[in-house]
Amino acid sequence: MIYKRGRTYWYQFQINGRRIRESAKTTNQQVALRREAARRLAPSNGWQGSARNIGTFEDSFAEFLSSVAAHVKPRTHQRYRFSGKRLTAHFEARKAVQICNRDIEDFKRLRLQECSSAGTNRDLAALRAFRNWCLRMGYSVGDFHVRLLREGSGNMRIVSYEEERAYMETADKLVRDVATIIIECGLRPGEVFSLEGGHVNLSGKYVRILSGKTRFARRTVPLTDKAYGVLASIWRSGKLFDGSVPHQVVMRRHNAVCKRLGFDFRLYDFRHTYGSRMAMAGVDLMTLRELMGHSSITITQRYCHPTPEHKLAAVAKLVEYNEAATKKPQSDLTVIQ
Q1: Domains in the chain: boundaries
Q2: In whole numbers, what is the pLDDT of the chain averaged over residues?
Q3: Nearby residues of 241 by Cβ (< 8 Å), 6 or more positions away
Q4: Which residues pair with 2 in a beta bridge?
């Protein structure tokens, strides 16, 4: 493993029961990983010859997934598995040591034809984690660098009240229930599907989120009347939603509804809508951060987008204020006898 002491990276590991802890003498993480790998394979450690090779990229990545399973979060491991399918399909039977920078650029170009920069970056991040793991394990890996793409501000979309009404009238009960919980409580779709009966307190009118992407996701969210009605109608002692209906099914049904109505928003955008409506209703950002489970107010601010109607109302307030401030006060006429 490598770690920082001050600005310099250090590494430590054990060889035959003997702990080795030395400075990598660099402030660059990639250089430190390479020096750690070289130190592991040094002749003084009892290793003779060059770095080990474990075969094709597919075999190497499979061992990587098995090795890091106990050290990363389940969602991260799931992300690595998903990205590994794309990476393996591209690099096929090539060995990790044969991969070069040109191969990485080819992968970027082809992957961008299938998804956004954000999706491509998730795959590139998995490839970078795989490369770092190879270096730590002393496996042969190509001399390539993984540079992430620049991502935009995202596709945050606020759903209008008219769109929400049309959507709810068209969607089936399952999709309608999920969308209602998200837009009324601001939950992430994954949080909705992980809810269990014990997480819902109908008498207190709140739900408890016990886990999430960060520790700040753990929170208690009060229920609106609409959300209470939905959860009360589907509440049972086990999962709120039937496990035989996976997240992907709801996403497909959501896309079908949007296509039928000519809409272009995602299911996740109902969460963005919740945040924006809360902000426009005057809820302070500290409270909104707690309700949405964000790690900082900076993230919360990205979710708060005033609608065109709200902006027009704000300008109208400015005009009204300016007129009142510039209006000449009536002078009292005093009659002098």
Answers
A1: 2-137, 161-309
A2: 83
A3: 174, 178, 192, 193, 195, 234
A4: 11
